[in-house]
Amino acid sequence: MKLSEIASIIGAEFNGDDKEIISMNTLKNASADELSFIANAKYVKDMSDSKAGAIIVNEKTKEFVPSGCEALVVEDTYWQMAVLTKYFAPPVEDKDAFEAEIGEDSDIAFEAEIADGAVIGKNCIIMAGVYIGSNVVVGDNTIIYPNVVVYRDCKIGSDCIIHAGTVIGSDGFGFASNRLGQHKKIYHNGNVVIEDDVEIGANVTVDRAVFGSTLIKKGARLDNLIQVAHNCEIGEGSVFAAQSGMAGSTIVGRNNVFGAQSGIAGHLSTGDFNTFAARSGVTKTITQSGKTFAGFPLMDHKLWLKLQGVLSRLLKSK
Amino acid sequence: MKLSEIASIIGAEFNGDDKEIISMNTLKNASADELSFIANAKYVKDMSDSKAGAIIVNEKTKEFVPSGCEALVVEDTYWQMAVLTKYFAPPVEDKDAFEAEIGEDSDIAFEAEIADGAVIGKNCIIMAGVYIGSNVVVGDNTIIYPNVVVYRDCKIGSDCIIHAGTVIGSDGFGFASNRLGQHKKIYHNGNVVIEDDVEIGANVTVDRAVFGSTLIKKGARLDNLIQVAHNCEIGEGSVFAAQSGMAGSTIVGRNNVFGAQSGIAGHLSTGDFNTFAARSGVTKTITQSGKTFAGFPLMDHKLWLKLQGVLSRLLKSK
Amino acid sequence: MKLSEIASIIGAEFNGDDKEIISMNTLKNASADELSFIANAKYVKDMSDSKAGAIIVNEKTKEFVPSGCEALVVEDTYWQMAVLTKYFAPPVEDKDAFEAEIGEDSDIAFEAEIADGAVIGKNCIIMAGVYIGSNVVVGDNTIIYPNVVVYRDCKIGSDCIIHAGTVIGSDGFGFASNRLGQHKKIYHNGNVVIEDDVEIGANVTVDRAVFGSTLIKKGARLDNLIQVAHNCEIGEGSVFAAQSGMAGSTIVGRNNVFGAQSGIAGHLSTGDFNTFAARSGVTKTITQSGKTFAGFPLMDHKLWLKLQGVLSRLLKSK
Do B177 and B194 touch, CB atoms closer than 8 A? Predict the structure, then answer.
C-alpha cells in the first residue's frame, strides 16, 4: 500500500516521498518498508532509533521523527493506527495458497478441516472437528484433539499435545476508544508460536499478537481454561494451572509455576523458577527468581501467611 | 396447551374458564395467553398489574391474583413452574422450518451446519464447524470463526465478530430444588440478542434467557472465557476483559469496563462509564457513574489502595 | 507387558519371577497383575496391604514391599512412573473396535463423529460437531449439544444434558518434574463417569482420572466454564456455579453449592449440604455439613462478614 494512500485514509497531510508500505510494526521492530506509530509519550525514546519507513505522530511527537522517516501527523494516533490495521489484515483464509501438505504417517480425521497453505509434519494425529488455518505449520508427532481451532499463520512445534476445544491465534483484545465510548478494532496481524514439547489443556485460549508473535516456549505445560493474551511470552518449562490468566504483553521467565485461578497483569515480566500460589494476582514485575508468592496484591508467601494470622487475631480480639 | 391440562400436570385444582396458554412469562411481561408464577413474596406488588392469563400461586399469594386472571394453587410454585417449562420448550431443532436463507456474497464453510429456519445476512463469513441453530438470524458482514455454536432462536447483528469456540444461547443455570436436594430443570425458552458491532472473544459463554432475552448492546467488546448468565444485559460500548463473569439478570450500563477475572453478582445494575478493576467483585447495585472501583467486597478504588496501605503497615507493626 | 521389560525401560535391576503386567494403579487399588509405585513417604502405610504385582520403589522404601510383590528400585520413582504410563496408554482411538451402536429413536447429527466401540442409548440427541470417542457409553434420553467432545472410554448416564463446547475426559494436569525443570507427562489412563440426571453447562472441562475414574454423581448441576480436575468426585445433587473449579482428587459430598468463581484445592473433601459463597477458596478439608462458608482463606460466612466490618472500621479510623 502506498504511503500516500495511507495518509489519505487517516486524513494526514502528506507531501513527502511516496513509498510502498508492506505492514505495520512497533517502533523498535519496524523496518524501512513498515509503518509505525507513537501513542504514548513514554515511547518517544524509541523513536530516534526506529528504522520505520513512516510513523503516525501527533503535533507533540512529530519533532522526534528521525530523518529519512516520514511523519503522518494526526490528532488521535492510536485510533488511526487501529483504523489502518484493517487494511493490512489478510483475509481469514488464504484462498490462493497451495493445497495443504501432510507429512508421512500423519492421521488426519476426515472431519478435520486443514486450510490451504498449511503444512503438517510427520506422524501427527489431527482429530475430528479440528480447524487448521491457512499457512499454519505443525511439527512432527503432535496430537491435536477434537474441535481445536488454530487460526491462520500460527506455528505449533513437534511433540506437542493440544486438548479439545482449545483456540490458538484468535485476535487479541485490543481496540482504540474515543470519548464517545466507541471502540475501533485493532486487527491482530501477528501470530502465535508454540515451541516443541508443549502440552495445552482443554478450552484454553491463546491470542495472536498485534505485531510479531505470542510465544509459548519449549516444555511449557498449560492446564484447562487458561487465558494467554496477545504478545505474551511463556518461558521454557513454565506451568500454568487451570483457570489462570495472563494479560497482554507479559513475559514469564522459565519454570515459573502459576497456581489455579491466579493471574498476571499486562506488560510485566517475572524471573525464573518462581511459584505463584493459587489465586494470587501479580500486578508488578518480579525481578527475583526462585521465590514463592501469594495473595492479591501479591506478596511473599510467608508474609501472606503472616497477614492471615494478623487478621485472624484482629478478628478474635473484636 | 389448555390451562386445564396445565393444572392437571402440576396437581392444581381448576374450575375456571378454560383457555389456550401459548407460553410462560414473568408477571410484568406476561400477556393474556401466557402463564406466570409467583415464587417470592417480594413480587406480590407485580401481581395486581399483571396481564397474565393465569398465575401459579400458593395458599398465601392466591388472594392477590387480579380479577379475570386464573389462579393455579400449588404448594411449591417455583418447582411447578420448572416442571411446566419443559412443556413449553421447543425441540432442540425445528424440523418443520424452511431451508436456511443465505444472503448474497456470504461465505459459508462446507463443514458449517446451518439449521433450517436460519437467516444469514449478506457478506458474512461462517467458518468450519460452526453450528447455527433453527431460526437464528445473523445480520450483514458478520464473521463467525470456527466451532462457534449459536443455539436456536438467537439473534446476532451486523458487523459482529465472534471468535472460535464461543457458545451463544445455551440454557441458563436455573432449576428449582426441593428439601431432598433434588433439582428440577427450568427450560430456558428465551433467547440471546446481540446487537450490531459487537466483538466476542474465544470460548465465551452467553446463556439464553428464561423468558425474554439476554441482551448485548451495540459496540460492546468481550474478551475470552467470559460468562454472561441468563437474562443479563450489557450496555452499549461496555467492555469485559478475559475470565470475567456476570451472574443472572444483571444489567450493566453503557461503557462500563470490567477488568480481567472480575465478577458481578446477579440481579444488580450499574451506572454508566464505570471501571471495575481486575479481580473486583460487585455484590451491590452501583447507582453512580464515571467511578472506578476495586476489591471484593467492592469499594472505591482509592479506598482499596488505602486499605492495602493500612494492612501493609499493620503487618509491619507485628 | 512383561515385568522384565518394564524394569529395563526404567533402568531397574530385576532378577525376580517374570510376569505379565496389564496396567498401572495406586497401591490401594492395584491387583496382582498391576504395577504400582510409591512417590511420597506418607503412602508407605498403604504398601503392606497392597495387592500389586510389583511396586516402583527407591532405596528407602524398598524394605516395605510386601512378600510376593516384586520391587523395582529406581532413584526417582515418580518420574519413572510417568515414563511408564505412556506404555500403558491406549491409542487415542480404538481402530479394532466394533462399529458404534446407536439405540432406538436416537437422533445423531450427520456432522457428529461417533468412534468405533461407542454405545449410545435410546432416544438420545447428539448434535453437529460432537465427538464421541471409542468405547464411550451414553445412556438413554441424553442430549449432547454441538461441538461437545467426549474422549475415549468415558461413561455418561441417562437423562443427562451436556451443553455446547464442553470437554469430557481430557488428560488431567499431571507430570513428573526434575531439577532441570523438565516435565515428563503422566498419561491418564482412567476415565470420567457421569451418572444419571446430570446437567453440565457450556465450555466446561472435566479431566479423566490417572487411574480409576473422575466421578460426577446423580443429579449434579454444573454451570459454564467450570474446571473439574482428574480423579475428583462430585456428590449427588451438588451444584457448581460458573467459573468455579476443583483441583485434583478432591471429593465433594452431596448437595454442596459452590458459588461463581469459587475454587477448592486438591486432595480435600467436604461434608454434605454445605454452601461456599461466590469467590470463596477452600484449602482445607471440611468435615462439617450444612454450613455456609466464604472468603479466601475460607472461613464461616458470618465470620467473613464480621471481618469485612472490622476492616471497614479500621479503614475509617485511619
Answer: no
Q: Would you call C173 and A221 a contact, using CB atoms and an 8 Å cutoff?
A: yes
- Gap from C221 CA to chain B (nearest CA, Å): 8
Interface chains of chain A (3 or more CB pairs under 8 Å): B, C
Average pLDDT score over residue span A230-256: 98
Minimum-distance CB partner of A167 among B203, B273, B315 = B203
ipTM of the complex: 0.97
- Chain C residues inside the 8 Å CB shell of A318: 306, 310
C29 touches chain A (CB under 8 A): no
A169 grid coordinates: 491465534
Containing B282, the helix (H) or strand (E) segment is strand B281-282
pLDDT at C111: 93
Buried b (16+ CB within 10 A) or exposed e, A17-40: eeeebeebbbbeebeebbbbbbbe
B189-240 confidence digits (pLDDT tens) = 999 999 999 999 999 999 999 999 999 999 999 999 999 999 999 999 999 9
Q: pLDDT band for A16, please (50, 70, 90 cuts).
A: confident
Q: In the structure grid, which three cell numbers stand for residue C184, read together?
A: 515428563
**Rg of chain C over all Cα atoms, to the nearest angstrom:** 22
Indicate the pairing of strand C299-300 with strand C292-294.
Answer: antiparallel
Question: Which residues in chain A are contacts of C171 at CB distance < 8 A?
Answer: 161, 163, 199, 201
C277 touches B: beta carbon within 8 Å:
no
The answer to whether B3-88 and B101-302 have equal CATH topology is no
Question: Is the CB of residue A113 less than 8 Å away from at least one CB of chain B?
Answer: yes
pLDDT for C66 beyond 90: yes
Contact A225/B at CB under 8 A: yes
With 0-12 CB in 10 A as exposed, 13-18 as middle and 19+ as buried, what is C18? middle
Q: How far is A182 from chain C (nearest CA, A)?
A: 29
Digit-coded pLDDT (tens) for B73-116: 999 999 999 999 999 999 999 989 999 999 999 999 999 999 99
Per-residue pLDDT band for A318 (boundaries 50, 70, 90) equals confident
State residue C65's pLDDT score: 95
Phi (first) and psi of residue B63, to 5 degrees: -65, -15
Mutation pick from A106, A203, A274 vs chain C, by most beta carbons of C within 10 Å, is A203
Question: Has domain A3-88 been given CATH number 3.40.1390.10?
Answer: yes
User: Catalytic: C230?
Assistant: yes
Type of residue numbered C176: A
CATH architecture of B101-302: 3 Solenoid (2.160)
Distance (Å, whole) CA A140 – CA A138: 7
Closest of C290, C283, C288 to residue C266, by C-alpha: C283
Residues of A in Cβ contact (< 8 Å) with C113: 109, 111, 128-129, 146
The dihedral formed by the CA atoms of A244, A248, A249 and A254, expressed in degrees to the nearest 10:
10
A70: helix, strand or coil: strand
Mean pLDDT of A262-279: 98
**% of chain B surpassing 90 pLDDT:** 97
Question: What are the chain A neighbours of B318 within 8 Å (beta carbons)?
Answer: 306, 310
Calculate the dihedral angle through the C-alpha atoms of C38, C231, A167, B137, rounding to the nearest 10 degrees: 180
Would the CB atoms of C170 and A224 count as touching at under 8 Å? yes
Identify from C170, C240, C306, C315 which residue to disrupt to test chain A contact, counting A C-beta atoms within 10 A and taking the largest count.
Answer: C170
Cis peptide before B146 (omega within 30 of 0): no
For residue C55, pLDDT beyond 90: yes
All structural domains of chain B with their residue ranges:
3-88, 101-302
Residue among C163, C183, C188, C230 flagged as catalytic: C230
At position B213, the amino acid (one-letter code) is S
Q: Is the pLDDT of residue A53 over 90?
A: yes
